[in-house]
Specification:
The chain has one domain: NAD(P)-binding Rossmann-like Domain (Rossmann fold, 3-Layer(aba) Sandwich). The chain is built from seven helices and seven strands. The chain has a seven-stranded parallel beta sheet, with helices on both faces. The termini are far apart.
Length: 267
């Protein structure tokens, strides 16, 4: 029986947990067919969690599951369109059917706007808001609702961005708005569900190599020489923050945003 994250009896304090072992946990990672999400899925599987790989590109879903399986992990795939409430609820249902109730949700899926604000067409505005904010909010509430019904603890990790704290321009205004909203969503839902022992935290990465970031470099050129350490970060450098927030080690941490940006942006 998995006793990790059991609620302590009133007036008692359990011994501290320091392990990143996620055996028995079911993790759903949105946008996990490429980029940072793919790394997150592999990292959680390597920590012995059962991982649900999600995304819209079905060929890549199969590819990621096969990669995790080859690495000795356990993974399943379900197609998920973050702009569709029906798809969101279906993904949670499928996860419960094939792997069990979700213990850990990583809200990673996101798309850029990649245009100056005044040039954004309405359909792109709607897609960015739906994918980056509305969808994660609906999914988080759906997962939390089921955890609360089962009186079970859980973890939510929202992937925000340093652009949600500091914006230097460059055609990502709406993306920045949605990531700032993800930070606030983290803070308010942590308060909302503290009594239910659902911890809600966030990670704000800076410039990391990813499908989205590499696309930006293709558009505007390599700017790594302008960064304090003259480099883009490697996705593996997010592993420790992710595992901390998903593991029993962060039992008392909720409503927190961890900035991982290599000193790239001002505070």
């Amino acid at each position: 029986m998995d006793t990790t994250d059991e609620k302590p009896a009133p007036g008692t304090f359990p011994l501290p947990h320091t392990s990143n072992d996620l055996t028995g946990k079911v993790c759903l990672v949105t946008g996990s067919t490429a980029g940072l999400g793919r790394r997150f899925a592999r990292t959680l599987a390597a920590a012995s969690a059962t991982v649900m790989v999600t995304g819209r590109r079905e060929n890549l879903l199969t590819e990621v599951v096969e990669q995790i399986t080859a690495e000795g992990g356990i993974a399943h795939a379900v197609r998920l369109d973050m702009t569709s409430e029906e798809s969101i609820i279906n993904a949670v249902d499928v996860t419960e059917d094939v792997a069990g109730p979700i213990n850990i949700l990583v809200n990673n899926a996101g798309i850029p706007d990649a245009q100056r604000a005044e040039r954004l067409p309405t359909d792109l505005i709607d897609r960015v808001l739906s994918t980056n904010l509305r969808g994660p909010f609906l999914l988080t509430c759906e997962v939390a609702r089921r955890l609360i019904d089962k009186d079970a603890p859980g973890r939510v990790v929202n992937i925000a961005s340093m652009t949600g704290h500091h914006y230097a321009g460059g055609g990502a205004a709406l993306y920045s708005v949605t990531k700032s909203a993800m930070v606030r969503m983290t803070e308010v839902l942590a308060v909302e569900w503290a009594r239910q022992h659902i911890n809600v935290n966030a990670i704000s990465p800076g410039a990391f190599h990813s499908e989205m970031m590499d696309g930006m470099v293709d558009r505007v050129g390599d700017f790594s020489h302008k960064l304090p350490r003259k480099r883009m970060c490697d996705p593996a450098q997010l592993d420790s923050a992710l595992l901390f927030l998903c593991s029993p080690a962060s039992d008392a941490v909720t409503g927190t945003v961890i900035k991982v940006d290599d000193g790239q942006l001002p505070r």
